[in-house]
Design brief:
This protein is an alpha+beta fold and 213 residues long. It has 2 domains: 22-149, OB fold (Dihydrolipoamide Acetyltransferase, E2P); 151-213, 3-Layer(aba) Sandwich (DNA Methylphosphotriester Repair Domain). It is built from 6 helices and 11 strands. Strands 1-2-3-6-5 form a 5-stranded mixed β-barrel. Strands 10-8-9-11 form a 4-stranded mixed sheet. Helix 3 packs parallel to helix 4. The protein is globular.
């Protein structure tokens, strides 16, 4: 096949891909701010973000957890969405990880960050939208929107960040003490760590406003 025919074939393939309608999935249930159930039975966990936890068994909820769920519910419940995937396809609970889009093209993950209903949750798998995610979080932080309207208590002399795992810890956290010298970052406050795109360790819970309403 000569180069002209090959070029024409490539153009035809791209046109066909562009004309192919995107697959839409109906959301039938919203668990919280970052997890939904589709009509096909799959659970979708929004990739790259984390929203405050809704606790069960008569325990209190984390700050802004109900507001985040309600906002997410308003956006996607009983509506059709488009999914986009990245390197990491599932989490440890078997939920599908995805960027979730509304019919108008807006990404729900980004909307939650911009409204201050979520914070970035990065990992060693570098996400394609990391910069955009962090930019939106920083804007919400500057505007003190959502979760950022409650001050972040500084309860330690410093905090240990891991540039590889994108987590930050209290100084006495066993996981924090294992951070290698080349990956270690020292932060003066949880706010500084969030600003750089790190998220709090679930084990030592270095972020005080997360606790309870």
């Amino acid at each position: 096949m000569n180069s002209k025919k090959l070029f024409k074939l490539v153009i035809i393939v791209f046109i066909c891909m562009a004309l192919k309608p995107a697959i839409l999935y109906k959301v039938i249930f919203v668990y919280d701010g970052d997890t939904v159930l589709l009509a096909n039975g799959e659970k979708i966990r929004y990739l790259g973000i984390n929203t405050p936890e809704i606790n069960h068994e008569n325990r209190k909820n984390e700050f802004m957890s109900i507001a985040a769920r309600n906002f997410n519910r308003k956006l996607v419940n009983s509506k059709k969405v488009k999914l986009e995937f990245d390197q990491e396809l599932k989490d440890r609970y078997g939920r599908i990880l995805a960027y979730v889009y509304l019919k108008n093209g807006q990404m729900v993950n980004l909307l939650l960050l911009r409204k201050g209903m979520a914070y970035v949750l990065f990992s060693r798998f570098k996400l394609k939208y990391m910069k955009s995610f962090l930019d939106n979080q920083q804007k919400a932080m500057q505007e003190k929107s959502g979760i950022w309207r409650r001050p972040l208590a500084v309860t330690e002399k410093y905090y240990l960040g891991n540039r590889r795992s994108f987590r930050f810890h209290r100084p006495d956290c066993p996981l924090g003490r294992k951070i290698s010298h080349k990956n270690r970052i020292i932060f003066k406050s949880p706010y500084d760590a969030f600003w750089k795109g790190l998220s709090p360790c679930k084990r030592c819970n270095p972020c005080e406003w997360q606790r309870l309403n």
